[in-house]
Amino acid sequence: xxxxxxxxxxxxxxxxxxxxxxxxxxxxxxxxxxxxxxxxxxxxxxxxxxxxxxxxxxxxxxxxxxxxxxxxxxxxxxxxxxxxxxxxxxxxxxxxxxxxxxxxxxxxxxxxxxxxxxxxxxxxxxxxxxxxxxxxxxxxxxxxxxxxxxxxxxxxxxxxxxxxxxxxxxxxxxxxxxxxxxxxxxxxxxxxxxxxxxxxxxxxxxxxxxxxxxxxxxxxxxxxxxxxxxxxxxxxxxxxxxxxxxxxxxxxxxxxxxxxxxxxxxxxxxxxxxxxxxxxxxxxxxxxxxxxxxxxxxxxxxxxxxxxx
Length: 309
Known about the structure:
This protein is about 50% helix and about 15% strand.
């Protein structure tokens, strides 16, 4: 069974500028030895305490983070980003932090910009402030396939939560005390960013964004496949949406598929044309669309009824 180990508090390096005392900056990290020291040092200029949750790294991430001045919580094994964030929220609750800032440890984000997130959080009325890479229209700096994927995830997230944001997958975000106390972190994987917004929506919290810069030229970039990552997050969002809003996520697409399939079957059967292989394939595809639509519509009705009981 995994256990969480806390590494000592002694700081070997302390920045000249002291950070604010009401905010905790948390860096979930896994094999970030190339950048973690620099990220911690800059974060300490914004907040007096920086917590690195080392998720079972096999390199010197934990040691370098502690040497730079961070408090370190270590997982014996890699348990996923969501579990690291859950530990961060638990730590913030237990130690009565007024604000919590999450920032990635790969140097794509500049920790000094956490000050803008904290300012927006303190001024209110937002309970959660997301650092957006795209708020100022800087999508051109990101690869096209990433921009398209991000738009899709933003749209599904908005349908799930009601929050219209430009960077739903940003790992750079600040939480006030209300959010720290009420947001439930239940997704162990990289879908945690959207899952936190779903939890915030269920608790009627307010979310806003502030612009941040982004650096994709990092020393040791994330090696996870962005397409596979985006697809897994989208599937999770659609599954959650199907449970929360079955008529929208299941019923509406089901009705469209059934209608398109029915029209295709009707046209194929009634067409005065010689039966060819293409016509047969068209009939089979139309029938499949019709059946899929009926299944989705039926699932929508059953899910809606189950939710009423």
